C-alpha cells in the first residue's frame, strides 16, 4: 500500500490560504495573500529539496493543480523544483475537470477524492506527496488517509483565511519524527500518524 505525505505552509493560527501571491486565493475576501515568501531562506530551501528528493508521485486537488500548472508547468528555468514537478506523475482529484492534458504526466482521478484516492493508495506503486491542496488534505484527513505531515509553521497570525484543520475530522494522534527551525523563525515539523 502506498503512503500519503502532506507538506503544508501554515501560520501560527492555522491559516494555509494564499501563501505565495496576493492574487493566489482571494476566496472569502481574503486580503493577506503572499504572506509566505518573506520567510524563505537557505535552510527552508534545503529542507524542501530533501522532501522533493524523497517524493514519489504527486497528488493535487483541482485548484492547486491549476495554480501549479501556471507557475511550474510551462517554466523552463533549470530550477530543480521545476524539473521535478514536470517529470513527476501528477494525480489530480477533481469532480469538475474533464481532462488534465495541459500538464505532462498528469492523471485525472475523477469523482469524490476520498474514494478515488483510497483506491489509488491501495494499488501498488510509488508513494504520494501532496503540496498545498488544503481542501483535498481536509477530505483525506477526515477519511484517515494521510500518513505523514510536514508542516512549515510560520511565525505570524493572520486572523482570517482558510485553516488547515476545518470541519469534521477524526481524533488522530501523530509522533513528531523531526524538526528544524529556520533563521527566519519557521519551524519545519515532521509528523507520522500513529
Automatic annotation (TrEMBL):
Residues 3-187 form the Bacterial bifunctional deaminase-reductase C-terminal domain. Pfam families: RibD_C (PF01872). One of its GO terms (molecular function) is 5-amino-6-(5-phosphoribosylamino)uracil reductase activity. It comes from the Bacteria. GO terms for biological process: riboflavin biosynthetic process. InterPro entries: DHFR-like_dom_sf, RibDG_C. This is Dihydrofolate reductase. The lineage of its organism: Bacteria, Bacillati, Actinomycetota, Actinomycetes, Streptosporangiales.
Amino acid at each position: 500500500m502506498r503512503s500519503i505525505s502532506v507538506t503544508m505552509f501554515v501560520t501560527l493560527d492555522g491559516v494555509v490560504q494564499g501563501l505565495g501571491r496576493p492574487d493566489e486565493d482571494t476566496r472569502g475576501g481574503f486580503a493577506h495573500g503572499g504572506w509566505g515568501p518573506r520567510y524563505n531562506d537557505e535552510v527552508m530551501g534545503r529542507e524542501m529539496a530533501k522532501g522533493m528528493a524523497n517524493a514519489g508521485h504527486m497528488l493535487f486537488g483541482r485548484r492547486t493543480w491549476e495554480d501549479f500548472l501556471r507557475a511550474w508547468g510551462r517554466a523552463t528555468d533549470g530550477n530543480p523544483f521545476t524539473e521535478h514537478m514536470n517529470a513527476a506523475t501528477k494525480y489530480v482529484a477533481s469532480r469538475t475537470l474533464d481532462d488534465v492534458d495541459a500538464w505532462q504526466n498528469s492523471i485525472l482521478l475523477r469523482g469524490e477524492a476520498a474514494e478515488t484516492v483510497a483506491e489509488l493508495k491501495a494499488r501498488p506503486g510509488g508513494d504520494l506527496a501532496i503540496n498545498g491542496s488544503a481542501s483535498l488534505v481536509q477530505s483525506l484527513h477526515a477519511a484517515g488517509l494521510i500518513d505523514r505531515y510536514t508542516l512549515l509553521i510560520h511565525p505570524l497570525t493572520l486572523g482570517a483565511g482558510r485553516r488547515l484543520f476545518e470541519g469534521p475530522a477524526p481524533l488522530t494522534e501523530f509522533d513528531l519524527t523531526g524538526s528544524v527551525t529556520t533563521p527566519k523563525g519557521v519551524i519545519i515539523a515532521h509528523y507520522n500518524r500513529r
